[in-house]
Design a protein that fits this description.
This protein has 289 residues and is of the alpha/beta class. It contains 10 helices and 11 strands.
Length: 289
């Protein structure tokens, strides 16, 4: 019977050796190339599972641009129901330099920033003023426009000549705008209490001003001039500009590649004259920044 036992012992020994070798391989999981079962989470975290936003945009062949579509001459729907205006031209040229097309998605200004955070848009190009407060929740490109903000009243109004005359008055302003923040946090503590009426679009606030539902608003004449002319509004800007704002291309935090690419595109537009051409087209003057 001994001749039968030896082969069995050899087989058992061989299996033992194989088992030890496999066990040794399992212990080397921390070495490069090891991928033990149950460690998928770490593997996914270490690998580039999701491309950065710029890469996604280029892969899709388009950049989703959020804007109001009701703020001529910055962004509005033209007679062909196409998004047009200064912001639209900036967006189209930035997209071109990125090698993609601009896809415009319109919405009320008060919801644009929330839509950006929820990835409804890749960027906002809709006169989003660059502020320290907004920099906490989003990133900005370099400025692509400078706006001077004035007090605006009816033509026959002689009582309001500046923000200092707002006390006890009713002032209209765009909901969620930097100008609303200015009225609440800067103007009101300085001059005393006044009523603030908020609007989702500029033309409604100007119409209310024209018929006397509000006493004044603040805005910039680049935006107001075409609306005043088109709608034959009896309103005017008074006094010196109360402040100057800079608007930039806004995107979600932590997308440095996209911000860098947009900055490069805007700088090229400054250098090759495209920015000057767009500014002249819509405002009739050269940019002053």
């Amino acid at each position: 019977m001994s001749f039968k036992v030896k082969p069995i012992l050899k087989a058992v020994s061989l299996l033992t050796i194989v088992g030890l070798v496999l066990a040794g391989c399992g212990k080397s999981a921390g070495q490069p190339g090891a991928n033990p079962a149950g460690d998928n989470k770490n593997t996914q975290a270490a690998s580039p599972a999701s491309a950065n936003l710029l890469e996604q945009i280029k892969k899709n062949g388009k950049i989703k641009v959020g804007l109001m579509g009701t703020y001529a001459p910055y962004n509005f729907l033209n007679d062909k129901k196409e998004v047009d205006g200064y912001d639209a031209d900036i967006a189209k040229n930035v997209a071109k330099k990125l090698g993609v097309e601009a896809e415009f998605i319109t919405g009320e200004f008060s919801g644009l920033i929330e839509g950006l955070q929820k990835e409804k848009y890749d960027v906002l190009i809709s006169q989003v003023t660059i502020t320290d407060d907004r920099k906490k929740t989003m990133d900005f490109s370099i400025p692509y426009i400078k706006n001077s903000i004035n007090v605006v009243v009816k033509n026959d109004n002689t009582a309001i000549k500046s923000v200092d005359d707002f006390k006890g008055k009713k002032i209209g302003i765009g909901l969620g705008t930097n100008d609303e923040k200015y009225l609440r946090e800067v103007a009101m503590p300085k001059v005393g209490n006044f009523e603030i009426a908020t609007y989702n679009d500029v033309i409604t606030s100007l119409t209310d001003l024209n018929v006397g539902r509000i006493d004044a608003t603040i805005n910039n004449m680049f935006a107001l001039k075409p609306l005043i002319e088109k709608n034959k509004l009896n309103i005017k800007a008074v006094g010196e500009p109360i402040k100057e704002d800079f608007a930039g291309v806004a995107t979600r935090k932590n997308n440095p590649e996209l911000v860098e690419a947009v900055n490069k595109a805007l700088n090229e537009m400054k250098t090759d004259g495209t920015l000057k051409q767009i500014h002249q087209k819509w405002f009739g003057v050269d940019p002053s920044f």
